[in-house]
Amino acid sequence: MKKIAVFASGNGSNLQAIIDAVKQGKIKGAEVKVMVSDKKDAYALKRAQNNNIETKIFLPADFSSREDYDRAVVAYLRAMQIDLVVLAGFMRLLTPYFVAAFPNRIMNIHPSLLPAFPGAHGVADALAYGVKVTGCTVHFVDEGMDTGPIILQESLPVYNHDTEESLRQRIQKLEHRLYPHAIALWVQGKIKLEGRRCLIDDK
Ligand code: GRF
Fold it and tell me: Backbone phi, then psi, for 63, in 5-degree steps?
């Protein structure tokens, strides 16, 4: 049984989608062992508690540097024997120390078709730019901001009447399907990395 740690700073709708997918047998051979947050009041914590998932809060203010913070997190993940780290709206950039501790074992989901519109405002930036197609991306995490190897992407059209909110809602619907799928592929050993390319064996 693979052990997953989900990291979230906010609402946690992706966390919920992953929990549901495990329950429904869409992610087989894995469990969400722990949910980690950097915010005391993240609604994601409630969702985890409602599902009897252990929660752990690491407050940035309790650490003197980003690396100290990440050292504590990594020590905790190792103690919990975590196999896969899943970032789901976790609003912190990981240090090289963290990334090196879990090589190709950290995933993130981003609300645009990377490499377009990385960063914290992917939906607003895509809308403002005027693209006609956007979407979401699941990728492995490297030391950059939303720059790691792409695992899965899915696209959707941008309509004339879209607002940031309407577009975000439609993108999130895609995310809730795509992220559990990417995790299931990883658990089944179906993602092969060749350079930057993730070759998916989805038979
Ligand atoms: C998602 O839209 C994801 O793309 C981005 O942060 C958002 C988190 O939403 N990385 P939620 O907390 O899972 O609802």
Answer: -125, 150
